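Minutes, project check-in
Item: structure for the 92-residue chain
Input as provided by the requester:
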Amino acid sequence: MAINDGDFKDLSDIIVFGPSSADVKTANARFDTWILPFLSVGGFYGQYTGTTTVNLVAPIEFGATSNAGGAYWGFNTVGVFPAGPCCDFRRL
């Protein structure tokens, strides 16, 4: 364990954790389109929910649950170009 960016201390003889779990669900949608023969643009959007449960067994019995949720999004581009002998356009 470390506090405020301090040195780590081994507390495994004092603190004992019980079973802990995390459950996260997410759904997203993505789109993209080719706007030129060599350039694709697109984006994505998604939402998530999650629950984390942590149980402390010793030195005291204690349990804590945290719920989280939110959204994420982004944009992307893809460019392609010919390369290698298979794409030698001088032979066409």
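Outcome recorded: The chain has a mean pLDDT of 89.
No further action items on this chain.
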